[in-house]
């Protein structure tokens, strides 16, 4: 997995529109920022559940980089550990809007503003198209100019935006800022202290990035140049944070294990050959009989609890679905989700279509959402005596049934064979 992550990282392009600010007697004014998108700022839409989890994992990795107690350089200099970055909602929205702009245009460019009022810009990174959060971390930290934005002592807040394009590729924008002048001044003081201690030039507050070139043959020296840290990158491993996020969902380490017994109430079941898998509300999965464990969502920052699961008969994998419509695919293709989209009612279940390899999601109001499977009808916007609580596919006809809490059955492309007495 490490080789894969490094190969992917090598292919990710990076841009640093402003780079990191150097030593200055005063912070850069927010008024210097101008919009890169038409109009006042890039259009914003809330990130999907997958994009949100991807961004959260990126921030966790960047904080792990900052937390390294010593990052040695060839001249013997070192940086101190830095405090974690607070996630700033306004900055995150600006970063998400910029990432969506990159994904929409397919053109990589640095972000040039605006920054939220009262925040002083201290660094910015943009990258894409990429594949995974581990690869993004490696790309940034193996580029000194980009690593400088992450390892700046002047930064105390960050906003991470991730947008997935139509080809399933990730475009990412990292914005770093200082929310108050005292913090900026402290960063500048630390910068000067490190310069004096190590006799080097630094591109960002508190981060040693370059050293003078040693004497060359024939005498003299070259100009200062970038060098890489000799210490390993803290979050460089693909599973350093327990999971590696992609636009298709999470990738889990091969040593992940099923949870048996499940820690929370069971919410779904999938049949796999000679066995079956069970899932609980926090996304843990247990396997029984000949079923294979292919991953789980427990331990991830879920926007909503897991409410169901379904098996993919074509691959032997399975999907988990959350109440917000987010889909987590394990050994099965990710074909889309309702995560991050407005829902009239929460999702309560799902079913796989054996004919197409796709799946359906069903909401409590009877709404159906089809991904890679045909839409055959729904009870959305129709009166119901009781909410829908589940669904099942009919392999003989390719249709599906919905079932309500009172036992009522609603058939779409499948035969109606009766209902519970309470729903008759």
Write a structural description.
With 424 residues, the protein is an alpha+beta fold. Helix content is 19%, strand content 26%. It is built from six helices and 23 strands. The strands form eight sheets. The protein has a five-stranded mixed β-sheet. A three-stranded antiparallel β-sheet has the order 12-13-14, with no helix packed on it. A three-stranded antiparallel β-sheet has the order 15-16-17, with no helix packed on it. Helix 1 packs across helix 4 and helix 2 packs parallel to helix 4 (133-141). The longest helix has 19 residues, at 49-67. The model is unreliable at 1-12, 16-36, 72-78 and 197-232 (pLDDT under 50).
Layout of secondary structure:
Layout: H1 2-10, E1 14-15, H2 49-67, E2 71-72, E3 78-79, E4 86-87, H3 89-105, E5 120-130, H4 133-141, H5 144-150, E6 157-164, E7 170-178, H6 181-198, E8 210-211, E9 225-226, E10 244-246, E11 249-251, E12 266-272, E13 275-280, E14 285-289, E15 306-311, E16 318-322, E17 327-330, E18 347-352, E19 359-363, E20 368-371, E21 388-393, E22 400-404, E23 409-412
Parallel strand pairs: 4-6
Antiparallel strand pairs: 1-5, 2-3, 5-7, 6-7, 8-9, 10-11, 12-13, 13-14, 15-16, 16-17, 18-19, 19-20, 21-22, 22-23
Helix pairs in contact: 1-4, 2-4
